[in-house]
């Protein structure tokens, strides 16, 4: 569905995307994980054929992005970061009008719009104005809109940013269903749980480059230990404690508010902490996550 080789995007002197390679097969949910400014949206815009690459080769749906943009766009679904719905119109009208961009006949558009509202569980709101919808409902409507041209590939830029947990789960559940229907999904996210739950494969981006790639499980197994012990001390300066804990685990990481011990045996690391005469205010043993992978690879946390 997507093949990029040596993809580069420069804005003046600034290189936003710095020579990335990606391959996305059909039916996969492929995620770009990374902090602000990593180059995720820029990559999505190139794949969406709205921003031409400065250099490199980019093929989407077997076509060349440089020369076949309009043909590619006709077969893509796009869910932008900010909702661009027409709030003055009702839900059905939003979908039907969008269908016109694709030259879909009115009768077909209305039928599809009804089906799609059903798919995103908004049928009972068909005649309401968009301005009356919650954030989660708007997202679902935007997802419905992205499907009006029956796309093979749907691109979602931070599909659940700003939504409450329940609204996020509703969006995820619909995206799972889309995937089951064989639609390929490409998404960007700041959220490790979203990446873990939705994505078959991930690239971790940082500073315009790909820092790592794999399934969520592979990334965790390759880059971090199985367990993590989080220690919080009554102090303003956790780095002093990190020094005292040198060698207490496979790796010791310090954040402003805690020390992280990366270990394959949480219990013995906790004993080691006490053995060194240290008394943390709190101790949390947990499984390693993508957030830990990210910290390892970039030295930063996902959500600043
Ligand atoms: N149109 C533009 N003109 C100049 N610089 C840009 C433009 N778009 C993006 N950039 C810069 O390119 C870099 C990558 O931005 P991009 O929006 O792709 O990051 P991102 O990973 O999507 O971040 P976010 O999570 O905040 O959306 C940033 O340094 C940004 O300031």
CA-CA gap between termini: 32 Å
Q: Major beta sheet, specifics?
A: 6 strands, mixed
Poorly predicted tracts of residues: none
CATH topology of the largest domain: Rossmann fold
| Helix-and-strand structural type | alpha/beta
Q: Write down the overall mean pLDDT.
A: 93
The total of beta strands comes to 14
Keywords: Antibiotic resistance, ATP-binding, Cell membrane, Membrane, Nucleotide-binding, Translocase, Transport
Main location: membrane
Pfam families: ABC_tran
GO cellular component, one term: plasma membrane
Describe the overall structure.
Keywords: Antibiotic resistance, ATP-binding, Cell membrane, Membrane, Nucleotide-binding, Translocase, Transport. Belongs to the ABC transporter superfamily. One of its GO terms (biological process) is response to antibiotic. This is ABC transporter. It is found in: Cell membrane. The chain is of the alpha/beta class and about 300 residues long. It folds into 2 domains: about 1-215, P-loop containing nucleotide triphosphate hydrolases (Rossmann fold, 3-Layer(aba) Sandwich), CATH 3.40.50.300; about 225-285, Alpha-Beta Plaits (2-Layer Sandwich). Helix content is about 35%, strand content about 30%. It has 11 helices and 14 strands. It has helices at about 40-45, 70-75, 90-100, 105-120, 135-145, 165-180, 190-200, 215-225, 240-245, 265-275, 290-300, and strands at about 1-10, 15-25, 30-35, 55-60, 65, 75-80, 155, 185-190, 200-205, 210-215, 225-230, 250-255, 260-265, 280-285. Strand 1 and strand 2 (about 15-25) form a beta hairpin. It is globular. Adenosine-5'-triphosphate (ATP) binds near residues 36, 37, 39, 40 and 42.
